[in-house]
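Field reference: sequence -> structure
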Amino acid sequence: MSDTGGAPQLGNNDLGQDGIHLMMTHDRPLPDPEATLSQTAEQFRVWLAEHAAELEPFRHEVAEELDLSYARFRPLQALLWDHGWHRLGWPIAAGGLGGTALHRYVVAEQLATAGYVNPAIHGSIEIIAPMLIRFAPERAAEHVPAGVRGDEVWCQLFSEPGAGSDFAGLG
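Structure field:
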């Protein structure tokens, strides 16, 4: 296994159980971005079962202010990032493990199927992070990990000239 820019890379001898690739960092296996979607789903279900007690507080959504919800689910985002599940599907250059957006979808789907809440911030992350990666890769390397992990909260602002929200015209 080699280390390129701080992101773990898959080596030829890093095969996990049932031939599913695993990467190791800090003595923890990370999900394999080259795994099939069904392998990813199975690996994540196993991980969810192994961490059920730790994840229990995230089973129920409570009607609350958005900032309270972000604060309450930030530990879930951090846990999923730190164990690699929320790094799947993001480019290595942006702090991810590689893989496709479908890997992210599988993780979100399995999280919901298991009865856990997908943090509300995911909607804005799925809009803003791909734009950062495509149009500002140097900023993506800093902000995508922080946003997906929950260390930053993002929003998207729209400016509509002539409709009362012309932010570009303020000045």
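Note: Residues 1-26 have pLDDT under 50 and may be disordered.
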